Prior knowledge:
The chain is of the alpha+beta class. It has eleven helices and eight strands.
Amino acid sequence: MTDQDADKLVGSDRVLAVLAELAKHPRGIGLEDMARAMASAKPTVHRALASLRRAGFAVQDGHGRYVLGDEFLRLAFAHHEARPDHVRVQPVLQRLCERYGETIHYAGLDGRDVVYRSKLDPTSGAVRLTSMVGGRNPAHCTAVGKLLLSYTLHTEQEVRDWAGDGGLPKRTEHSIGTAEELHAELARTRERGYGVDDQENEPGVICLAVPMFLTSPAAPSGAISISALAYRTPLKKLIEDLPAIRAVVANPAP
């Protein structure tokens, strides 16, 4: 955050900015480091932290560092668990997780990123992936992202405008790096009706995604994906099992 940004923050805006910064430090952060991160005076940041502590949204650990409070976490998880899309996709995530023994996501598109709205890991044998509920990844590197983009970007010019002048960052050596490549991949994705990620977001991890229609029969509300270790569950196996995957997603009721 710049000094100019910090000067614009007043009252509740500053408290919310401090809360957002605090969420970036799960192991805690001291007052001095927080003031530096906020580019603001320590007394100012301390008052914002005091407001958060009174609400139960922040606490201090035994070393004087500030962390998110249990009340904030309770509200966040209660909201997430009660969201209609989360409730409706949970049976799908559960059945696919049991069937394949791999991590299952439900994600939506937000600008140039995908946002993970729900995630379910198998009870055993899972390798922790970098994804988390509320987390983001570049859309062009993920199966869910490419699938959802295929519904909105149809021409090469639309893809170029979406990609912007900065280009497409490559997460791995397999990632798409140009608008031309992405345009061709989106065309293939539209034709086959599913998205793939062949070690494009994380080395050694593959993913297959299919659309989820919760609110409209024409525009997907998001996408369901199966993320797996390439050596354990090859992408080819998931593609061959696509009819069964689609059948599960088409019938979300338990």
